[in-house]
UniProtKB/TrEMBL annotation:
Gene3D superfamilies: Porin (2.40.160.10)
GO cellular component labels: mitochondrial outer membrane; pore complex
CDD domains the UniProt entry points to: Porin3_VDAC
Keyword vocabulary terms for this entry: Ion transport, Membrane, Porin, Transmembrane, Transmembrane beta strand, Transport
Stated name of the protein: Mitochondrial outer membrane protein porin 2
InterPro entries: Porin_dom_sf, Porin_Euk, Porin_Euk/Tom40
Predominant localisation class: membrane
Family that this chain belongs to: Belongs to the eukaryotic mitochondrial porin (TC 1.B.8.1) family.
Compartments reported by the entry: Membrane
Length: 277
């Protein structure tokens, strides 16, 4: 959750999700990032996944409260994003479009204040989808919901709700999603024995299929430059990750995924290297 106000709906359960999902991958990723004193940031990424290679080049220019980001990938897609902060106090506006799909344009407003936060996004086409999310509360406890309404079919295509309780060394969250068909409950606790790391448990249930998944995970800070993470669910899926900061803001991440029932069956490994001179 954000230190100011309740945070956005996407912040509910975010810390736990990062331990269980962030940086786990079975791809090979190489990224070079650089910055200039004029506010220009450049990123070049090459990804190899399932024998196929792809990549993109991104440039972001920041000036005062404005930012322009342009990303071009190997499939000739061009994503352009314009961001303006503090148009009014505590508000941010974002406009984006992906070419050559001219109907992909979107305009979004984000507002974050002491006791309320919301986002509104509208597609820039003839039959736009309208996305809305909102939370209310404090940095310690927040209630929120999100929904999406399709004007082309005239009905809501998504609605989720959640609550988050945050304490100094732990936080818990409950999210009701998939139009009420699923529920996810998570709890995270920070432990001094893990040098600032944490343990997390998550239970997810899909009501239509009576399917339950229990996932436990932890992060351990080996030293200021090295973090180890691991996760395991009741289906026997095991994941492990090591991330090391080579130099300031340059990271090497190595991850693996296994089936504990048969460790020799299709283990998946991946790595990512982010270099920032």
């Amino acid at each position: 959750m954000s230190g100011k106000g309740p945070g956005f709906f996407s912040d509910i359960g975010k810390r736990g999700r990062e331990i269980l999902t962030k940086d786990y991958n079975s791809d090979q990723r190489f990224t070079i990032s650089s910055s200039t004193n004029t506010g220009l940031d450049l990123n070049s990424t090459l990804v190899k996944s399932r024998g196929l290679s792809s990549g993109d080049v991104a440039a972001e220019f920041k000036y005062n409260n404005k930012a322009v980001n342009v990303k071009v990938d190997t499939e000739s897609n061009v994503l352009t994003t314009f961001t303006v902060s503090d148009v009014v106090p505590s508000a941010k506006t974002i406009a984006s479009i992906r070419l050559p799909d001219y109907s992909s344009g979107k305009f979004e407003v984000q507002y974050l204040h002491d006791h309320v936060a919301f986002t509104v996004g509208v597609g820039l086409n003839c039959s736009p989808a309208v996305d809305f999310s909102g939370t209310m509360g404090t940095p310690s406890i927040a209630f929120g919901a999100e929904t999406s309404y399709s004007t082309s079919v005239g009905k809501f295509t998504k609605y989720n709700a959640g609550v988050c309780l945050k304490m100094p060394s732990s936080n818990a969250s409950v999210i009701l999603g998939d139009k009420g068909d699923s529920m996810k409950v998570s709890y995270l606790h920070q432990l001094d024995r893990l040098n600032g790391g944490a343990v997390v448990g998550e239970i997810s249930r899909r009501f239509s299929s009576n399917e339950n998944t229990l996932t436990v995970g932890c992060s351990y800070v080996v030293d200021p430059q090295t973090v180890v993470k691991a996760k395991l669910n009741n289906h026997g899926n095991l994941g492990a990750l090591l991330q090391h900061e080579l130099t300031r803001k340059s990271f090497l991440t190595i991850s693996g995924a296994f089936e504990t029932k048969d460790l020799d069956k299709n283990p998946k490994f991946g790595f990512s290297l982010l270099l920032k001179p």
